[in-house]
Amino acid sequence: MIRHLTPADYTTMPWANGKGVTVEMLRVEEGGLKWRLSRASVVENGDFSAFPGIERNLTVISGPGFDLVAQGLHLPACPLQPVAFAGDVPIRAEGVTAPSDDFNVMTARGLPLPDVRVIHGAEELATDGMLALFALDAARAADLELGPYDLVLTDQAVSVAGPMIVVRLYG
Length: 171
Hints:
Elements (H helix, E strand, L loop, with lengths): L1 E4 L5 E4 L6 E9 L3 E10 L3 E2 L6 E9 L3 E5 L2 E5 L5 E4 L5 E3 L5 E9 L6 E5 L3 E3 L4 E6 L3 E3 L2 E3 L4 E4 L3 E4 L2 E6 L2
């Protein structure tokens, strides 16, 4: 199975805390949220929405980045460096100097944590679970030409090229 989604397929919705919007690319429910892939902009310091029972992974895809701060926790959210944190920790964006767009992976707690990485060149990707391939610019996956912010979902081994975020989802 290979499924190709473009920005025209995505849904825009307000953040749970009402302070911004999310572009939801994929949502899988199985008795509650199983997986969610989305994109959002962080434009000012402020609280993140709480998602109890959810593990989060955020990758800044444009802009200078910011810090994720909670009691006893300080995580730099630097461009193109995935950072993971629990969705139920009261966390804030701090040090926002300019807007930053980010790519988000949410998975139900209890599932194996996703593997999230950024690639820039050509690779052969084996599957072990579901692969989600998020194009950061023009890219290729199998025989598909991808535009910026296209998403490919596959449970098959695939050849890829171009800047993209590769997410392995398990469960």
